Amino acid sequence: MTVIHDMDDKAEAKMRARDVSVYYGDKKAIDDVSIDIPTKYVTAFIGPSGCGKSTFLRTLNRMNDTIASARVEGNIELDGENIYSSGMDVVQLRARVGMVFQKPNPFPKSIYDNIAYGPKIHGIASGKSELDEIVERSLQRAGLWNEVKDRLGESGTALSGGQQQRLCIARAIAVDPEVILMDEPASALDPIATAKIEELIDDLAGRYAIVIVTHSMQQAARVSHRTAFFHLGKMVEYGPTDQIFTNPLEERTKDYITGRYG
Amino acid sequence: MNAEHTVKAFDEDITRLRGLITEMGGLAETALEGALDALIRGDEKLAEKIVADDRKLDTLELEVDRLAVKIIALRAPMADDLREVVAALKIAGVVERIGDYAKNISKRVGRIEGRNRFEPLTLLPAMGDVAAEMVHDVLTAYAARDPALACEVIAADKKVDAFYNSVFRNLVSHMVENPATISSAAQLLFVARNIERIGDHATNVAEMVYFAATGSYPIDDDVEES
Hints:
The complex is a heterodimer. Chain A is an alpha/beta fold. In chain A, about 35% of the residues lie in helices and about 25% in strands. Chain A has 10 helices and 11 strands. Chain A has helices at about 55-60, 90-95, 110-120, 130-140, 145-150, 160-175, 190-205, 215-225, 240-245, 250-255, and strands at about 5, 15-25, 25-40, 40-45, 70-80, 80, 95-100, 180-185, 210-215, 225-230, 235-240. In chain A, the strands form 2 sheets. Chain A has a 7-stranded mixed sheet with strand order 1-11-10-4-9-8-7, with helices on both faces. Chain A has a 4-stranded antiparallel sheet with strand order 3-2-5-6, with helices on one face. The radius of gyration of chain A is 18 Å and the shape is globular. The mean pLDDT of chain A is about 90. Chain B has 7 helices and no strands. In chain B, helix 2 runs antiparallel to helix 3. At the A-B interface, helix 8 and helix 10 of A face helix 3 of B.
């Protein structure tokens, strides 16, 4: 049984998952999850380690395809289109549903090329000047432009951890995605770099559908509008973040967020 | 009853916070009952003691404030824990205020002349009893996290209000009939007003107890009228 609260906002669903189960071999990692991911809002997935939140996040842009034993059942739609249908171009899907990982993973290339790579291979930019524009705009939106504009030729790996993570977010933005998935995007960063990422998430929220997996409940509370609590592969409760953190309806949610999880 | 937190010190903080509120409640209840007793018997010694004892309530309120701020800063309480701490902060302020009203009643004890001739003095103890019972019940509701009892307290406030209206009318007619009593009657009017305010504050505490226990407010759940 999943408790789904009334959402007062009139957010339209960008992604829609219905009866999704994920298996690794015989092991069921996700059990019958149905959820709507709204556009222009931040949705947080929380839950203890091994609860399936990252696995579920990765089904949203078919990252689990790379794991041979993984099998997905059910339906996941992006703008009404089943992303697991045979006609779906996975490369295109991942441009529309971008991803940012726990550890910053810039390409061992220049800052400029880190951003320009995606638009180039997707044929988004028609020429050098348009590419320049995309690089600047992406770095601006990621709040990194002022820090790197004079050294775009330097290697992306030479930046600090927090800057690298914002570079990865800029890289995801560069291909003009509709959904951005973030898997623990700030857990390897210090508090100041974390605050910058959170501020960035807040800035980006009005433009994209953002889904963030986080172990920090304070972070989920700070950055998200909606929160889904996962436990043992099931989605236990999904609702407005303020309600989940002040008055959750499910005992299991309450025990987890109040630190009584045993 | 809630399961224990993984971090035991968190439970200890919450228990301590609840203990402080209960202690404050006990002191406020004693002060109110004593003040009414002193008023009726004209016991100025007792009245002075109540005024002096009020300092303890002030000190405890400060202690609740400090502990609640510490819990919020260090433990980042969530859900029912968060409601518990927020409610404790507000309840401490309100209970301290109840103590102030009891103190104020006590201060007026020496200023009432010819107390044997005053009919309103027979109404006041009954009114005071209802208010004292509200304070007592709301503290029981707090200790037991009992929203139903909190609702009973909220409903009882109507009785106090009705008493206040009749005491008011009574005192006004006394003043009209016998202007010599105006000074004392005015004092009693303030006493009645203080008791009426205590009823209001007990109602506020009841609302916080309800909120801490259920996560919603009585007014939202439409139980205010019951």
